[in-house]
Amino acid sequence: MRKLYTIIEKEKTLREFIIKLFTINGYLDRCNVTFLDKEMTKLECKVARRSFEDLLSIVNTVYENISENELAKTLFDLNKNPEETTKRRLCIYYCNDITKWVFRFYDKKYLDNTLMYDSNQTFIQNQKGSGKYSFKDIYKIANGEK
């Protein structure tokens, strides 16, 4: 697995780390910058929404041995226990720019509380694009079905 480095330091829990990773200027939004090298001189990606594959690389660079299931469950559980995310919800949607499913926080008032993904994209839930995972794959991983 490739390594992606971030300025965000390791937290006690993966949940706390992910919340900090997606906090920009004190606001839950997109994922912080990542680098290809430990010295953080080679920018990999600016502040942006991130794919499941990228998030898996980031958390395993910081924590090592985080399973797909642990990451997916943690991401989906952020919306089940919203004490840190009262006004914003983590959303997953298919990005046509990079042709992968990506994560970012959105204002809760624009999202159905039961959904984590754009319901207009229901027809492409099985689509993987250039990524390794479809929405359904990530959902199944989070629920221990895969």
Question: Any overview of this molecule?
Answer:
This protein is of the alpha+beta class. 25% of the residues lie in helices and 20% in strands. The protein has one domain (5-142). It has 4 helices and 8 strands; from the N terminus they run E-H-E-E-E-E-E-H-H-E-E-H. The strands form 3 sheets. The chain has a 3-stranded antiparallel β-sheet. Strands 6-8-7 form a 3-stranded antiparallel β-sheet. A hairpin with a 7-residue loop joins strand 4 (34-35) and strand 5 (43-45). Helix 3 (68-77) packs across helix 4. The two termini are 19 Å apart. The mean pLDDT is 85.
- Record field, number of beta strands: 8
By secondary-structure content and strand pairing, the structural class works out as alpha+beta
**Strand content of the residues, in percent?**
15-25%
How would you describe the oligomerization state of the chains in this entry?
single chain
Tell me roughly what share of residues is in helical segments. Answer: 25-40%
Question: In order across it, which strands form the biggest sheet?
Answer: 1-4-5
The string of secondary-structure elements, in order, is: EHEEEEEHHEEH
Regions with little confidence, pLDDT below 50 for 5+ residues: none
